[in-house]
Amino acid sequence: MIKTDVIIIGAGPVGLFAVHQLGIKGLKAVVIDNLDKAGGQCIELYPDKPIYDIPAIPECTGEELTNKLLEQIKPFKTDFYFNERVNEVTQDKENWVVQTSNNNKFTAPNIIIASGVGSFEPRKISLKEAEKFESKSLFYSVKNKEIFKGKNISIFGGGDSALDWALELSKISKVTLIHRRNEFRGAPHTLSEIKKLSAQGKLSIKTPCELVSIEGSKDISEIKIKHEDGKIEKIKTDNILSFFGLIMKLGPITEWGLNMDKKHISVDSSNFETNKKGIFAIGDICTYPGKLKLILSGFHEAALASVACFKRARPNEKYRFEFTTSSKTIKDRLGKK
Length: 337
Ligand SMILES: Cc1cc2nc3c(=O)[nH]c(=O)nc-3n(C[C@H](O)[C@H](O)[C@H](O)COP(=O)(O)OP(=O)(O)OC[C@H]3O[C@@H](n4cnc5c(N)ncnc54)[C@H](O)[C@@H]3O)c2cc1C
What we know:
Helix content: 10-25%
Number of strands: 24
Bound molecules: flavin-adenine dinucleotide
Radius of gyration: 23 Å
Structural class: alpha/beta
Shape: elongated
Largest sheet: 5 strands, parallel
C-alpha cells in the first residue's frame, strides 16, 4: 500500500499543475495515468498544434506546454504510475484507497480526479481470438522493445505510432506493416524512410489489407490478411502490434458513487470537492455553473482544490496563504535561493 497526501488521477495538464499547487503547500502527491506518458489531451490529441490562450505564454504547442509543466514540478520529485487505470475507489475511515489495473494500491486522505474526458484506451482488434493473445503476443503499445528482437512482427495502423514502431523494430525484427488504406497518415519523413527500407527488402508493406484471422494455440503462429481483390494471404507472425488509435472511456469513474451530471462530476466551485469528502474533481471532468473546458480554468481549480486538500492532510496545521515571490518556505520547497 503506497501512502501519500493526495492521489491524482490523470496526468493531463490539470493533474500536472495540481502537483505544483500541492507541492508548494508541502503536500506529496502521486499521479496515476492510463497512458504511457504525461500530457493528456495535449500530448495525445494535439502535440504539434499551437495553443494561444495560456496566460503569459503567447504561443506553445501541446507538447511544449506538457514539457514546461513537467519542468515546473521537477522539484517535487513526484512518483508517476503510467499504464495504470484507476479502477476502484473505496473508503477506509478518513482515508481513501485507490486500486489500479496493475493491482497497485494507494491510500491518502485526498483524491484529485483530473481525468479529463476519461481514460485514453487503445481501439482494440475486433476479432474474437484477439483477446486470448492480448498482452502475451498481441500488444497495443510497446513497453519493452527487446521482447520483439529477432521475431516476425505484424504491425497494424497508418498513423505515427505504427510508422515509428515499424521503423524502429525493423532494426531488430522482421516487420510487416499492414494498413487498410493505401495512404498513411504519419510523418512524411518517417514514411519515406519506411518506403526506402521496403524497396531494399528490409521491411514489407501490405496495403490496402485487413486482418481476417489470427492463428495459434498458446502463441500466435500466423495471421491471415485480406487484400482489396479478396485474396487471402498468410503471414508468419510471432507478435502483433496494433495501433488503431485511442478511444476515450469514462470507465469506472461512474461507479465511485459520485454525483454526475451527464458525463461530468458535479463539484462545489468553492473548493472543487465532489459529494464525497476528500474527493475533488478538476479540469475537463468536472462541472459547475459557468464551467469552461479550458486549461486555464483547470489551473484555477487545481489551486483551490489544493487548499482544501491541505486542510484534510494536515488537520492540525493552519493553512497560510503565501505568494511564491515572497515566501521563504515555498522557495525552499522549489529549491530556489
Ligand atoms: C484539438 C484540441 C485543441 C484544444 N485546444 C485548446 C486550447 O487552445 N486552449 C485550451 O485551454 N484548451 C484546449 N483544449 C482543451 C484542453 O486540451 C483540455 O481542456 C485539457 O486537456 C483538460 O485537461 P485535463 O488535465 O482536465 O484532462 P486531459 O487532458 O483529458 O487528461 C486526463 C488524463 O486522465 C487520464 N485518465 C482518465 N481516467 C483515468 C483513470 N480511470 N485512470 C487513470 N488515468 C485516467 C487520461 O488517460 C488522460 O491522460 C483543446 C482540446 C483539443 C482536443
